[in-house]
Each structure stands twice: as structure tokens, then as C-alpha cells.
Amino acid sequence: MAKISKNVVDADLRARIFDDLIGNYSNIDFNYEKVNDRQYGTILVDKNGVERYCRVGVIVAEEREDMTARELMAKEIADYTTKQAKKAAQAAENAKKAEADKARREAKAKEKEA
After folding, report:
1. Contact (CB, 8 A) for 72 and 59
2. Which of 50, 41, 38 is nearest to 12 (CA)?
3. Which of 45, 54, 60, 99 is most buried per CB count within 10 Å?
4. Residue 83, SS3?
5. What is d(CA 98, CA 28) in angstroms, rounded to the nearest whole number?
6. Within a 10 A sphere around the Cβ of 42, how many other Cβ atoms?
């Protein structure tokens, strides 16, 4: 069986934890245990069949005089959304370039054969 990459495995574990936290996994018991004053942890089996220790932490943002908590949260969400859109645009551009490069290489190879 091919080993699934770390990025895919970790993203799946995070998604499962977040789904549980918002109530999408009511039939699965994640058994969170207190690790310290800031974190809880649980053991999950990843897509490769390996037990993994997952921690959930809470970060409390500092109070700010220049914006409310709601404004700060909205700003951080907007920043994240913007960065994700830029990443997607860059990935699309890279894919387009890779396709053009592949076509150019294939054309060169055919030229050499002829």
C-alpha cells in the first residue's frame, strides 16, 4: 500500500478534529484529555493506519485599542481568504505554465524525430 503524504494525512486529521469541534461527528467519541491549561489532546488513526497524537489549543488574542474583537476576527478571516485566493491563482498560473512547457518539450521531441 502506498504511503499517503504527510500534508494530506495532517490536513485530514485537522479536518476531522475541526468537524468534531463544530458538531459534525456526533457518533464518534474523540476522547479529548486535558494536556495543560491551554490544550486538550486526543489520539486518532491517520489515513496510513498510524495512531497520531492531536492537540487542540486555545489562543486568546490581546485586547486592542484600535479595533474590537469582532473587527480583529473579521480582519484575520479576510487576510486568510486573500492569501488562499492568491495561492490558488499562483497554482493555476503554475499549472498553465507547466502545461505550456510540456507542450513545448513534446514539440521539440517530435522535431528531433523528424
Report:
1. no
2. 50
3. 54
4. helix
5. 43
6. 19
pLDDT for residue 60: 94
pLDDT tens digits, 10-47: 999 999 999 988 887 766 778 899 999 999 999 999 99
Q: Which amino acid is at 68?
A: T
Q: Are 47 and 8 in contact (CB under 8 A)?
A: yes
Written in H, E and C, the secondary structure of 14-54 is: HHHHHHHHCCCCCCCCCCCEECCCCEEEEEEECCCCCEEEE
Grid coordinates given for 114: 523528424
Model confidence band, residue 105 (pLDDT cutoffs 50, 70, 90): very high
Whether the predicted pLDDT of 114 surpasses 80: no
Sign of CA dihedral 29, 51, 53, 46: negative
Q: Is the pLDDT of residue 1 over 70?
A: no
Give the residue from 30, 25, 49 showing the smallest Cα distance to 40. 30
| Global confidence as pTM | 0.69
Query: Measuring CA to CA, which residue among 17, 79, 89 is closest to residue 46?
Result: 17
